[in-house]
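Most newcomers find our protein records easier to grasp once they have seen one. To make this concrete, we reproduce a full record directly below:

===
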Amino acid sequence: MVGLTLSVLLMLMATAPAQAQTLTDCQAEITDLKSLTVSATFLGKNAAKAEEGLLLKLDNASVKLDEGKYQDAIDKLTDFKNTVIALDAGGKIDPDNDINASDLEAGADEAIACVQGLIDAQAPTAA
């Protein structure tokens, strides 16, 4: 009987909707993306400047998030992603490193989706 009860509980938990993202979750996504950025290898004579610029964009996104300016945070994260795409197209991110441009883009997408979830949670629901 206990096994059946546990099975039912596990099934209900597996089918329950995912929990809404929190501000803390989204900040963690940005922190993870910063770690990925630091782990990437940037190439060319302006490699350090490129990395610093990307990290600044993430810092700005984090500040906007703390201020409750979620769309501004998304804009900063989108700017980060677009810069990664441009750097990658210019051969400025080492594709052979453990962390490459695709990883940075995916991290940006995850952070953007998280912040978008905060916006969606604020939107009034239809009656």
About this structure: Residues 2-19 have pLDDT under 50 and may be disordered. The helical segments are 2-15, 23-39, 47-66, 70-89, 101-122. The longest helix spans residues 101-122.
